Amino acid sequence: MFELISDDSTTSMPKLIVLGVGGCGCNTINQLSQINLPASVELVSVNTDAQSMAATNSHFSIQIGPKTTKGLGAGAKPDVGCAAALESQESLIHQMQDADIIFLTAGLGGGTGTGALPQVARFARELVKPVIAVVTLPFGFEGHHRAANAEAGLNELLQCANAVIVLPNDKLAEVLGAKMTLLNAFNESNKILQDVLLGLANTISQAGLINIDLNDFISVISRKGRAAMGVSHLKKDEDLVTAVKRAMQNPLLDNIDLSQAQAAIVSVVAKDTIELSQYNQIGATVHQQLPHDALVIIGLTVDANLESELEVMVIATGIATKLLEEDLSASLQSEDNYINVHDFLKHPSALNQGLKPELKSELTQKPSQYHHDVNDLQIPTYLRYQKQQPH
Ligand SMILES: Nc1nc2c(ncn2[C@@H]2O[C@H](COP(=O)(O)OP(=O)(O)OP(=O)(O)O)[C@@H](O)[C@H]2O)c(=O)[nH]1
Ligand SMILES: [Mg+2]
């Protein structure tokens, strides 16, 4: 079982730590630093590239692998990113040890994020912390090597993190339109993490009418595999079922099949006029999309000042990973028409290399001890509380 650091006798605000690893991870941290996050969220930038890290806004920063990379980045070599994380293991562990939930984010395909992120997830896991990772897959036009790097990194990550949310960058062009600027498209994808964080921080730190607490959250994300996440705002006169389905079909996510999900957490924020039938309809809609035996935990927070009619956030977890090849097929089929995304962003170009075989075998070694028992977490909080109440 996960160790809960938060102490009810003090603030009972679970501490969420977000580590952005590599260039993309630090971009996301930068973007998160510009919004109003709850005080319980701590942002940490992690990079091998000292210059780019200095330009990142965060509460803490860790330059990993100063000896390995001399502060110059990992040059698109995941084995260098991995060695950098191992060199800085102590600082990374120190940073994560008082977290209740750890979020990790990176763009897969380069050196630092791809090599270091699975290692950071492994350290977090050895600290027995719940870990959610949000990662991007490279654009098809970035070429075969980056796609292969990303695939290896993702497979490693899936073994270490509890829930992994995957955002293929190609979906950005598909969904947002080819005319959108690259920077704006990146901002949209980085916004997914922002939505997850805000939604979760608000959900688990607010005393809802029907409360979701940290244990509920942990019981859902303990289902290993891919995860999906979406937020939807009910518009005036919109059908509630349509809005809930929208939250469950985030078009920027990979091809995930919700009928394979093992668990979901649904957080509803509504005005005090919400009807019992509406609340039931939300639950029924989520249940319909998931297997009949999936664990679904639904919380409700009443907010009289809510701008929209109603807000629904869904996180579905424990989704089988068979669709990985489909996500990567476009990139893997492409010839070596490698275009460095950094050229678009006016960053120095990086070289492209696959994972070394010896790194692959090192990375696939399973961490030694990792046991958690979620049986005691299967009962939603409000039912547990009802059981505890004297009649
Ligand atoms: N969605 C999104 N993707 C990004 C962003 N920045 C980079 N990427 C993607 O992430 C991949 C990895 O790029 P970086 O994060 O810059 O690489 P890195 O981890 O720093 O690796 P090295 O620079 O080689 O050490 C790229 O191939 C892009 O596909 C971003 O801000 N948003
Ligand atoms: Mg970099």
TrEMBL record:
Pfam family of the protein (one): Tubulin
Principal location listed in the UniProt entry: cytoplasm
Keywords: Cell cycle, Cell division, Cytoplasm, GTP-binding, Nucleotide-binding, Septation
Annotated Tubulin/FtsZ 2-layer sandwich domain residues: 210-328
Similarity comment: family membership: Belongs to the FtsZ family.
Subunit and partners: Homodimer. Polymerizes to form a dynamic ring structure in a strictly GTP-dependent manner. Interacts directly with several other division proteins.
Designated name of the protein: Cell division protein FtsZ
Organism: Shewanella glacialipiscicola
Gene name, Swiss-Prot/TrEMBL: ftsZ_2
